[in-house]
Design brief:
By secondary structure, this protein is α/β, with parallel strands linked by helices. The chain is built from 19 helices and 16 strands. Helix 2 packs parallel to helix 3 and helix 18 packs across helix 19. Strands 3-2-4-5-6 form a 5-stranded parallel β-sheet, sandwiched between helices. The protein has a 5-stranded parallel β-sheet with strand order 8-9-12-7-13. The two termini are 27 Å apart. It is elongated, with a radius of gyration of 26 Å. It has 4 domains: 125 residues, Rossmann fold; 163 residues, P-loop containing nucleotide triphosphate hydrolases (Rossmann fold), CATH 3.40.50; 73 residues, Helicase, Ruva Protein, domain 3 (Orthogonal Bundle), CATH 1.10.8.60; 65 residues, no CATH class.
């Protein structure tokens, strides 16, 4: 197979990465084991496919390297069994006397790379590092938020921070683009809080009219307005002792902002049409995709309300900043779709389709990825989903490109986010790296509606277990 020169990723980790070797030639096994152990990998070597399958759930490898030609179960059959266990676990296949048809067949089945014997150690090390980089390497905490599928360091750090603040009574503000999973994070915080046995209620402030939202939040008395045929407690009273999640709070009207501020200040709510106020004990978690600090400058959002809501800020990163999670999310959504459609065989993406999906900007984030996977699963006539179908699902053609202005804007946004993440939101340090004066750099951030406060992670929560450069 043709080789493409790719810059080597540098991987540093505090834990040992595991590689499962499968080959019926003991000399090859001994040689590969020595090579890979010398550079720090944990190796388990087996001589046949049956033993390899048994080792998967116990050894939990990050990568499998297998021979193609083996007695009993060959490499292709083993690959199919591995994909049943974990459809995105990378597999590098080796062969000493393979034909082109073997390489094509293995590629169509979804191997990461096909290498011929005798093995060149530098070439092997290159593809081992590349495979481990692509699938992501961060430890996964499934106890706090099992529904938030992740394996990236940035998400692991976010969840550690969220888990810690869940124990407090403080209001939490969750920022992030549409489709990143802000509602899932709010649910997780509630479940880990002392209020977990009480109710969790949520309302989308941008989906209701002003009058309806006022009634839903604060309640109303019977006859308070036309159509109020019976009394409504409202969400603040209904969530007393629990948590109220205000999604898209940035869309709330100025009049309702004033009333919400009063409730937060006094811990009392007065329903529409009522004379007396009622005490409530509710923890507020709010979220929006808007930059509220910019909205404050435009006079669209009250600064005093913002400071009441923004006691503890969290920021859910876009999918473009957590690309290590994409293979795991793909596997998860493919499994969901297979169960939903009662498919006999789990669909998979062709290697070039998977590689393409890893490079997309995903402006709609996890929600867009889920929709694309569902559409591809439904429309594919083969269990191997081709690249062309992915592009069709994304409404793209082979020759469609961004304009130069669009491409530059996307790069600038990525660059600014990357710098701020590197320096934990320190604007002065970030401006120095970018070669800007601080004032001009702040203007640039405002232009792209980037709030540096969302990058100021608590150092105690930053595990920094893995860095991929």
């Amino acid at each position: 197979m043709s080789k493409i020169a790719i810059k080597e990723p540098i991987i540093t980790t505090k834990r040992t990465l595991r590689i499962l070797l499968v080959d019926d030639d003991s000399i090859i096994l001994t040689m590969l084991t020595a090579w890979l152990e010398d550079i720090g990998y944990e190796i388990k070597a087996v001589t046949n496919g049956i033993d390899a399958i048994s080792a998967l759930p116990v050894f939990k490898p990050n990568l499998v390297i297998t021979d193609l030609r083996m007695e009993g179960m060959d490499g292709i059959a083993l690959l199919k069994e591995i994909q049943k266990h974990n459809s995105v676990l990378p597999v590098i296949m080796l062969s000493g006397n393979a034909h082109i048809s073997d390489a094509v067949r293995a590629t169509h089945q979804g191997i990461f790379e096909f290498l011929t014997k005798p093995i060149d150690p530098d070439e092997l090390f290159h593809y081992v590092r590349l495979a481990l980089t692509r699938v992501g390497l961060a430890d996964i905490d499934t106890d706090f938020a099992p529904e938030i599928i992740h394996q990236s360091t940035i998400m692991a750090n976010l969840l550690k921070q969220a888990q810690r603040i869940a124990k407090t009574r403080s209001s939490v503000f969750i920022g992030g683009a549409t489709g990143t999973g802000k509602e899932l994070l709010a649910n997780a915080i509630h479940r880990a809080s002392p209020r977990s046995n009480q109710v969790f209620m949520e309302v989308n402030c941008g989906a209701l009219s002003e009058q309806l939202l006022e009634s839903e939040l604060f309640g109303h008395e019977k006859g308070a307005f036309t159509g109020a045929v019976r009394k409504n407690l409202g969400m603040f009273q209904a969530a007393d002792g629990g948590t109220l999640f205000l999604d898209e709070v940035g869309d709330m009207s100025p009049a309702l902002q004033v009333k919400l501020l009063r409730v937060l200040q006094d811990s009392k709510v007065r329903p529409v049409g009522a004379i007396n106020s009622i005490e409530v004990d509710v923890r507020i978690i709010s979220a929006t995709h808007h930059d509220l600090e910019s909205a404050i400058k435009r006079g669209e959002f009250r600064d005093d309300l913002f400071y009441r809501l923004n006691v503890i800020p969290l920021h859910v990163p876009p999918l473009s900043e957590r690309r290590a999670d994409i293979p795991l999310l793909i596997e998860f959504f493919l499994n969901v779709q297979a169960k939903k459609e009662n498919l006999a065989e789990l669909p998979r993406f062709a290697p070039e389709a998977l590689e393409y999906m890893m490079t997309l900007p995903w402006h709609g984030n996890v929600r867009q990825l889920e929709n694309v996977i569902e559409q591809c699963s439904v429309l594919s006539i083969s269990p191997i989903i081709p690249l062309s179908l992915v592009k069709e699902a994304l409404c793209e053609s082979e020759n469609k490109l961004q304009t130069l202005v669009e491409a530059r804007k996307e790069f600038d946004q990525y660059y600014l986010n990357r710098i701020l993440h590197m320096v934990d939101g320190d604007v002065k340090h970030a401006a120095n790296i970018a070669g800007y004066e601080v004032k001009k750099f702040e203007q640039l951030l405002e232009q792209f509606e980037i709030n540096p406060i969302y990058f100021r992670y608590d150092k105690d929560t930053a595990g920094d277990d893995i860095h991929i450069v």
